[in-house]
Fold this protein.
Amino acid sequence: MARYFIHLSYDGTNYHGWQVQPNGSSVQAELQRALSTLLRQPIEIVGAGRTDAGVHARKMVAHFDVEELLNLKQTAYRMNRILPRDIAVEKIERVGDDMHARFSATSRTYHYYIHTHKDPFCRAYSCETHYDLDFDAMNEAARFLLTQDDFASFCKTGADVKTTICHVTHAQWHQTSPTTWYFEITANRFLRNMVRAVVGTLIDVGRHRIDLEDFKQIVENKTRTAAGESMPGHALFLEDVSYQ
């Protein structure tokens, strides 16, 4: 049995997230359908994470096992011919049997995009906001996340998780033009809805609805109801998945 990693990207607009859904389309289902068709046998794929409905990925990694040795370039090419236009396979590579797309990953990086002026070319992949945001205060609050390890305050209520412990190694707002920004956050793992809840709470800081001490208390209280709203999914991108 040989194990392979698939490196891919996708526009999540038309999907109910990464994971196979009983009554909705998913990225995982499309990949499994394409591979099963090509290899003429049922193939199950394991992803590095589970993006929510409408969330995109510039780089997702998934693995699958198959007995035969594959022509890697040809398999990737043929998959791209079968897959919808909003999913693209970058490459397929053979990896060791001990490599796991999810458990072997050492970090994930997400970007959340916002724009502060109406722009028809941003609307599909960025969240429009017209608040006068204090990004210095937002970055000061973001740096506090690096000192914490329990992010229960930003976990979706009722989520089936064994632990809310995460190790955030980077969290910062970056300006790309006078009216466009993105929030970059890297951690070893993320909870369901975590990034969008963090962004919503940081925007409350930027609007001066809460101050830094309020933000710290929200994190330390470990209660989701105290944090800000979960931001729309269309502006969130899984940017990278790293392995040793």
Q: What stands out?
A: The longest strand covers residues 56-66. The chain has a mean pLDDT of 95.
